[in-house]
Design a protein that fits this description.
With about 600 residues, the chain is α/β, with parallel strands linked by helices. It has 22 helices and 16 strands. Bound molecules: thiamine diphosphate.
């Protein structure tokens, strides 16, 4: 019995294909771009999706996954498309990153046709030669092992029975959106053009959550906060990274801060969400590792903290590496609003009430920025003065920089950067907790594409994507450079060359040697039609950075970094000292005690 005989001719003629429904659903969730690599099992998906959406080819599947993660960070959702197994399995690291950093990424993989399954072993499956049977589900199991929701879409089992694949696709994508978690979906290639039951999308993404906030008692929580605020002299809003996908909550918090003049700071992981040049913003706080002027207020004045959307379980790097110097962690006069409801609707309720509550004005006196410690113009530029130098440049420049620090020394040095507000909502973007090297260029590609599109539509002044990266990290992923040339996008890369994998180096083994003295990075950049320069002093660096601001395409500044203690960023000097003190080195113990007593 066909659909026509079951539900009638009219219904049958209205049926969309699964591919059409996928397009519709992806667009409903704001998706316009898919990052991916093709293959035979993905060919039908590509044919179905390529017209309505832009499919951006990546250099490999892991990069496609990382770019989809970056898209989830700045667009709200990310989409990745690969072929079966050989294509999807390299995305497992990106998927693990997405689980960890709380990113709604939809990993879509082609799969064998339903009619192909159980007939014979299919290429790309994992198949030892002594196998008596074939296994089709390894990728589903691998992604499932990461704690993700996974599913292979299915077609109708009997002719005329309902085909619910389109609806399942919607439900899976909605799940990713609601929970800020990735999902993995395999699509059998014969199902892409099969008819599926039509779906009626909700009016907007706002209305996809049935039940909304089921946590009760918001008024009582608000009363308690208002009482504590009445008793406080110097309150602080301390904000975590769960906020990064919630613009509404972000705006409510800033509105509250402004209405009652309450200063706010973020955790390290939430760095880049706010304009650190706004007087009320005290930057990213992390105990002894904090260099911002706001640290004094937090540690010496603040007498009541509202802790919002920070992680439930303590994470070492976010609590000053358990050095015991994180004052907010220890403070007792604190209200913890971690947020447990879908889309943080519980917190939205609370902040909406707080905004109209009777709260006094705190007349917070903006902290005077200590006279900017300029890096000495003639000094060698290195990790010890990189952030200062960039802060000085950013301070004088009306163009906001969107920083993309790569894991390595660059990541640690980047916590001393003072960031302006970017039109993308993020001016510092990395994977701060998962800490995967190899992400900065796939991330920068997405940032550069969005900045390019915005400038083309003359929506905002052009902003600047700035990658800070070690040579080891750069060589992990430089095949991604081709896409900046193809996409005609602009990026500035600060290449911190020390010829070793320095961060975490413990010994002199060959494994730490990631580069060769003879490597000519300028020849490489020329191949990509970019411009580059080697800079030795702070003043050379500043001149090159300013000049490259007028460049289009790839610009690279090579910094000859020395892998020695005096050239480390403040953050790493402190961390190394702490580790030495922990290991019982007497002079380090004395110095550490002095530092934490300051
Ligand atoms: C995918 C991945 N592999 C390995 C590591 C461990 N790791 C962290 S930093 C680092 C070395 C970074 O070296 P480089 O990029 O040259 O920067 P540097 O620290 O020398 O400035 C390594 C190997 C990681 N974080 N991620």
């Amino acid at each position: 019995m066909s659909y026509e005989m079951n539900f009638g001719k009219d219904y049958n003629e209205k049926l969309p294909t699964l591919g059409e429904t996928m397009n519709q659903v992806i667009r409903f969730f704001g998706g316009q771009h898919i990052y991916g690599v093709g293959g035979d099992f993905a060919a039908n998906l590509i044919a179905a999706l390529d017209n309505e959406l832009t499919i951006n080819p990546s250099s490999n599947e892991m990069h496609a996954g990382f770019s989809a993660c970056a898209a989830a960070e700045i667009d709200g959702m990310g989409f990745c498309l690969t072929t079966y197994m050989v294509g999807s399995l390299p995305c497992t690291s990106a998927a693990a990153l997405a689980v960890t950093e709380g990113l709604p990424v939809v990993f879509i993989s082609g799969a064998p046709a339903e009619s192909e399954v159980n007939q014979l072993a299919i290429h790309h499956t994992i198949h030892p030669n002594a196998s008596w049977k074939t296994d089709y589900d390894n990728a589903l199991e691998a992604f499932s092992a990461l704690g993700m929701r996974v599913e292979r879409l299915q077609g109708q089992r009997v002719v005329g029975h309902p085909n619910i694949a389109g609806q399942r696709f919607y439900q899976l994508v909605a799940e990713a959106y609601k929970n800020k978690q990735p999902v993995f979906i395999e699509v059998p290639r014969d199902q892409v053009f099969a008819k599926t039951q039509p779906i009626k999308l909700p009016s907007s993404v706002e209305s996809i959550c049935c039940g909304s906030n089921v946590l009760a008692g918001a008024e009582l929580i608000v009363d308690n906060i208002v009482t504590k605020l009445q008793q406080a002299k110097a309150p602080l809003l301390y904000i975590g990274d769960r906020l990064k996908h919630n613009d509404k909550l972000k705006q409510l918090i800033v509105a509250l801060a402004q209405k009652f003049t309450i200063p706010y700071a973020t955790t390290w992981f939430a760095k880049g969400l706010f304009d650190e040049y706004t007087p009320l913003c005290l930057g990213a706080y992390n105990g002894v590792f904090t260099q911002t002027a706001g640290r004094d207020y937090i540690e010496k004045k603040a007498d009541y903290v509202i802790d919002i959307a920070t992680s439930i379980f303590p994470q070492d790097s976010n609590i000053a590496f358990a050095t015991g110097t994180h004052k907010i962690e220890k403070m007792t006069n604190k209200t913890l609003l971690k947020g447990g409801a879908l889309l943080e609707k519980d917190l939205i309720d609370i902040f909406q009430c707080l905004l109209v509550s009777d709260i006094k004005n705190f007349n917070f006196e903006p902290v005077k920025e200590k006279a900017l410690a300029f890096a000495n113009a003639e000094d060698d530029i290195d990790f010890n003065n990189l952030a200062q130098t960039l802060n000085d440049l950013q301070n004088q420049d009306t163009t906001p920089y969107v920083y993309l620090p790569e894991v390595g020394n660059s990541y640690f040095a980047s916590y001393s950067l003072k960031v302006k507000q970017s039109s993308l909502g993020r001016s510092w973007l990395t994977n701060p907790w998962y800490g995967a090297m190899g992400t900065a260029l796939p991330y920068a590609r997405v940032v550069a594409q969005r900045l390019h599109a915005q400038a083309e539509q003359a929506l905002v002044e052009k902003e600047r994507a700035v990658v800070i990266i070690g040579d080891g990290g750069f060589h992990f992923q430089l095949n991604e450079l081709i896409h900046f040339l193809k996409d005609q996008t602009d990026v500035t890369i600060i290449y911190m060359r020390n010829n070793v994998f320095h961060l975490g180096k413990s010994g002199d083994g060959a494994i730490y040697h990631c580069n060769d003295q003879q490597f000519d990075v300028h020849a490489l950049i020329t191949a990509y039609q970019g411009k580059s320069e080697t800079c030795r002093s702070v003043s050379d660096f500043k001149a090159a950075f300013k000049a490259f601001g007028h460049n289009s395409g790839i610009s690279l500044i090579e910094v000859l970094a020395k892998p020695i203690e005096t050239r480390q960023s403040n953050e790493l000097k402190l961390l190394n000292l702490y580790i030495k003190a922990k290991n019982g080195q007497a002079d380090a113990m004395v110095r550490w005690m002095e530092i934490i007593a300051e």
